[in-house]
Amino acid sequence: MIELSHIGKVYGGAARVEALKDISLSVKEGEIYGIIGQSGAGKSTLIRCINMLEAPTSGTVTVNGVELTKLKDKELREECKNIGMIFQHFNLLSSRTVYENVAFPLELQGYSKKEIKERILPILDIVKLSNRLDNYPSQLSGGQKQRVGIARALATNPKVLLCDEATSALDPQTTQSILDLLKDVNKKMGLTIVIITHEMQVVKDICDHVAVIEGGKIIEQGRVVDVFTNPKEQTTREFVGSVISHDLPDEVKAHMDLHDAWDEGTKPVVRLAFMGGSTKEPVIAGVIRRFGIEVTILFGGVDFIQEASFGHLIIALDGEKEQVRKALTYLEELQIRSEVIGYATI
Amino acid sequence: MPLFSEMMADLMWTGFLETLQMTVVSTVIAIIVGVPLGVVLVVTSKNQILENYSVNHILGVIVNILRSIPFIILMVAIIPFTRLVVGTSIGTTAACVPLTIAAIPFLARLVETSIREVDSGVVEAARAMGASPYQIICKVLLPESMPTIIDNITVLIINLIGYSAMAGAVGGGGLGDIAIRYGYQRFDGTIMLITIVILVVMVQIAQVGGDMWSRKLNKK
């Protein structure tokens, strides 16, 4: 549905800034795609390249089979009508009522008053604003303003919805209701959604795929479940760690001396990650029974990423070195992810 | 002898109408020319929807030159132009020409500032919806800044009432002319007081009316 190929964006002038470097990604129809990064990572520029609010300096953007980077201004404006966008600060027209704001994009396209009414009343119903048609944006709460933003973006019946930090200005509860709404329209209308955010919780809650962007480059991308259970890059770990703790808490770490080498008198500390079904197998009991070693549980927890359960456990293995080695091999052969994160005396 | 003769009343009424004429004519023309000029000054500037350095620069320089000439000098300096436009350089109609010439750049700058205050995010949202530059101007920039543009026009009207008195002093008629000739040169304190009162009332009406209208439009 959306195909970005080798996108680069350079801001000229005296202070030459390379905002995006060789970014390629593809978003399938009906998918919710998250792009996460810290402020200044280039994510805002990237999403603006998708609807050409910012023209990339190199590479091609193809949305719904049309190569936007080739179009002239006028043709581009036509194509933009198939791409809705919502914003962190809502960007509603303060001089227009809720109804008039939602009618705005249709008005731009020259629809008659009657057609506009027929199209937007059901949408205002979906976003639960039917009772606030005559209110002005200043009379609404943040969450309601974003609902108007969503209704306005959906009024033209677009195929793609771009969300620019759409929940960053909202409190956690309101964020949840907006995310539910986005998921709802994604399912009901088959809308393809691209979300940029710096909040991993947003990605965890509604995204199918995620790309992590840092310094204008995509450093990691994949299915949300995979990225959460097995983050590879440090930045990704930090993001994942903000919602799911993978590492030993600092308090625990402070009490033990973690080494990189298996010295005499130290025990391997292993991180285990379980997905879905394997969570039910008695892994720890199995290790103890088979190899006759002691297992100390240092840290653990179970999380849910959308519908899939995801557990992780950090354990220390103690016993005869040969048996411990066998236990490690056994763990590696299981359908779970295991990783030795160090050796500690405890 | 009555304090205030019928002849005097007639004189004041005529003066009031002349002041009103000068203010209204120059305000209307200034709005017709100055508001679009203010819009052009914004949209042609850097990183705006119709960025155009030369147009922006040339208009900016013209506006600055006109704004830096004190009104009393402008009035005299453009007498040949005034003659060309209205056929004479004396009288109320002739005074409208320099008043308008001074009012246009004044309003244009004020409108420019007001439009710049429109949230750039709203313009971005309109661009994302595929709005043309013309649609952005007419459906976003102007409606969103309308309350402050009304405030700008109020300031303009009040300034023009003041300038029109100055124009009166050099043959343009109006209340200013009366105040100088009767109030100052003939030491008629009553006339002086009455013209001042009328001018104050005119300014008050403009201010209160403008405030009410602006507040009615302001939904922020």
Strand content of chain B: under 5%
- Share of helix of chain A, binned: 25-40%
Arithmetic mean pLDDT of chain B: 92
What profile does the largest beta sheet of chain A have? Answer: 6 strands, mixed
Instruction: Classify the fold: give the CATH topology of the largest domain in chain A.
Output: Rossmann fold
Strand percentage of chain A lies at 25-35%
Count the beta strands of chain B: 0
Helix content of chain B: over 70%
What is the β-strand count of chain A?
15
Shape of chain A: elongated
Give the end-to-end Cα distance of chain B, rounded to a whole number of Å.
58 Å
> How would you state the average pLDDT of chain A, rounded?
88
Shape of chain B: elongated
CATH superfamily annotation of chain B: MetI-like
* Number of alpha- plus pi-helical segments of chain B: 9
* CATH class division of the largest domain in chain A: Alpha Beta
Query: CATH top level of chain B?
Result: Mainly Alpha
Main β-sheet, spatial strand arrangement of chain A: 6-7-8-3-9-10
General description of the model:
The complex is a heterodimer of chains A (346) and B (220). Chain A is an alpha/beta fold and 346 residues long. Chain A folds into two domains: 2-243, Rossmann fold, CATH 3.40.50; 250-344, Alpha-Beta Plaits, CATH 3.30.70.260. Chain A has twelve helices and 15 strands. Chain A has helices spanning 43-50, 73-80, 98-108, 113-126, 142-154, 172-189, 200-206, 224-229, 234-243, 250-255, 283-291, 321-333, and strands spanning 2-11, 17-27, 32-36, 58-63, 66-67, 83-87, 160-164, 192-197, 209-214, 217-223, 258-259, 267-275, 294-305, 308-318, 337-344. In chain A, the strands form three sheets. Chain A has a six-stranded mixed sheet with strand order 6-7-8-3-9-10, with helices on both faces. A five-stranded antiparallel sheet of chain A has the order 11-15-12-14-13. In chain A, strand 9 and strand 10 form a beta hairpin. In chain A, helix 3 (98-108) packs across helix 4 and helix 5 (142-154) packs parallel to helix 6. By secondary structure, chain B is mostly helical. Chain B has a single domain (12-217), classed as MetI-like (MetI-like fold), CATH 1.10.3720.10. Chain B contains nine helices and no strands. In chain B, helix 2 (53-68) packs across helix 5. The longest helix of chain B is centred in the C-terminal third of the chain and has 40 residues, at 133-172. Chain B is elongated, with a radius of gyration of 20 Å. The termini of chain B are far apart. Classes of the chains: A alpha/beta (346), B mainly alpha (220). The A-B interface holds A 51, 53, 76-81, 83-85, 87, 89, 91-96, 104-105, 107-109, 136-138, 156, 162 and B 119, 121-122, 124-132, 135, 139-140, 143-144, 146, 217, 219-220.
